[in-house]
Amino acid sequence: MLLGFGGFSIILALFHNAVRKHIFHDEHNLDTTFDAGGNVSLSLTAVTVASQLFWPGDILHSATLTTKNGIAGPFWYAVGIMINIFIFPIFSVQFKTRAPGAKTYLQIIHARFGKKAHKLFCVFALVTNLVIMIGLLLAGRATIQSLTRDASDEFCLFVMAILFGSYSLIGGIGTTFYVSYFNACLVFILLIVFVIKILHNSDSEYASIGDISRMYKSISCVEGPVENANHSYLTFRSGVAFLYGVIEVFVSSAVTYCDQASWQSRIAAKPVQGVWGFLLAGFIWFSIPSTMATTTGMAYIALSAENGTHYLSAGQIDEGLVTPLIAEKVLGSSGGILILTMGAMALMSTGSGEVMAISSIIVYDIYQTYIRPFRKELKRTDCVLCGKLKKQTVAATYANDQDREILCHCRSVNKCHNCLEDIQRRHRPNLFGIKPPYMCPIHGQYRQYQDYLITFKNWCIIWVTLAIIPLGLIIFESGAIMGFFCGSAATLTAASMYPNGLNDFLLNTVQDYSILAGTCFSFGVSLTGCLIISLFTHKIKNKHDEDMEWQKMYNIDNPLNPWELNFKEELEGLHFDTKPTFQQMSTTFRKAKITAYVGGFCSIFLFAILIPGIMATFTVMSETQFKVWVWFTQGWAVVMAVIVIVAPPFEEIRRIVKQYHKNKERRQEANGNINDKIVMNEVIFKDKSLVDSNSVPTKV
């Protein structure tokens, strides 16, 4: 695993760095580490989001739900997560148009609501990342130890730390996109192998699998959960499965909206690509747990029926050992290797995303904001370079501009000749390897500050990665606060109603209705409390106040990497001073907003209402209906596999080639300008030679 996955990911990281250095020329940029240049393609965004949502637990847990709840279990599990995936584009397109320069969602909270709310949500964000990381470590350890003899906890944690942090340190979030692509390809290939060996294998040594008809006959004879219609595993009329889906909606909302890794993948794409990318990611992700669970979970039930009893105890089923068992039963030792490979792929994508998410919060929201800001006591409407009021802020709110001495007049970095000279000077070979200092009077000090942050970022990623090992060993604002306490109280109240109450704390607090009560109260009270408190405490009295509030978010930017440069193609033809206005951004990306609303609603309707509504019309599936459903999930997986394997490299290569041709045209244009200057100088010299030496040319 270390030599294979780790070595291959490091090679991808080096390749990504080479692309950023020689094609996009932005390798020495703090923001590029966390947004991959801000122009990631649609398909690569979709594949990365789907890969980061595909946890090792999905391989194990989805089959567990099939074993316990029947065919409806993994479907509602997937739907519960997908609802938030389809809603997320609505928020993300607002994020990208209202705060295009933000690199974390916490920066928006800081600009809009101030330091108190920012500190509170920094805590919530880090706790969310901590919980997700613990879940990854537990699932990863279970996967490795179930398939590797005598693997100690320390060994498992060491392997995961290396896989998470190695390529993240070298290539940043951009490498995560590349690695996620190869991970997704491998996961789909292995998924298709499982489907063929379990459902389309006439030479199977087991009589109950190898064919869909044989599997159906075996499962139809087994008594299912009492909550299911006719106590059958082959029905969508399952109250317990639907209940779990509702719980998953609220649980996954925290993972989606409070996890910086979700926002980070979205920040790396433009509004249109981000919206379509998340919608496509939902369709890609659905095909993995639904197909995997229908295949391995149903195979376990069929084999247990053939065996006359369960192969695993209830505790082992809850630990997620169904999928590894079926893999080894069907494929022998190679099956265990395949599951271990899929688990490692899922760990790498999600784990590296969490490492980068935690690092970005520490760099942007803690260190740069509170510990070592470039300019202390800076107002949110002031320029970070000179400390004066930004001109676009005044232009948005005042008709006449009289006090020009209080306004920022800093030259944009893309128009600064001193910056160009600094960059050229520092790229020249030096005998002692010491780069000269920055000389630009406007941006020089901030460039030095950014270099320091880049060094700090590298150490931050290293320490976050190293912290994975002790973390694993340890475990083997007003509305939000109110929701937290109410949710905790609701969970304890519901748990106390089970037998033995809170005496069996660990058992009863994870029961379905305890989790449902806690998540519903946390979500509902937080949402309601924040809305009510905001309505009664906000200070927006008129249009002027509203413009000033939006401008605070709009001003989140890195002066060395202005966000408007990333939207040159979309904003072509529009006239503005230094930055486009909010109205111009809103108009430009209006189609993206409409797509987010319409696409999200239609996708939720398809998965939460239409498909289950059709399947619920059958009390218990007949053999034909079961075959149709299995073929449907398999066909879905094959189509998504083709998209995942073909689309990202096509779009990425096209993007790199397009940038290469742009660079070539710029070089030719620059050479042409130089030649023009040389010709003009020759003309001037010849004109001088035609007149008396004491004369001066009258026309040039």
Description:
The protein contains 26 helices and no strands. With 700 residues, it is mostly helical. Helix 4 crosses helix 12 and helix 9 crosses helix 12. The longest helix is centred in the C-terminal third of the chain and has 68 residues. It is globular, with a radius of gyration of 29 Å. The N and C termini lie far apart (71 Å).
Principal-axes shape call:
globular
Number of strands: 0
Mean pLDDT across all residues, rounded?
A: 80
Helicity level: over 70%
Count of DSSP helices?
26
Characterize the largest beta sheet: strand count, sense, and whether it forms a barrel. none
Radius of gyration: 29 Å
Portion of residues in beta strands equals: under 5%
**Span from first to last CA?**
71 Å
Report low-confidence residues grouped into runs of 5 or more.
677-700
What structural category arises from helix and sheet content?
A: mainly alpha
Membrane topology: Multi-pass membrane protein
InterPro entries: DUR, Na/Glc_symporter_sf, Na/solute_symporter
Transmembrane segments: 75-93, 120-139, 151-170, 177-199, 241-258, 278-303, 337-367, 460-493, 513-536, 594-616, 628-650
GO molecular function, one term: urea transmembrane transporter activity
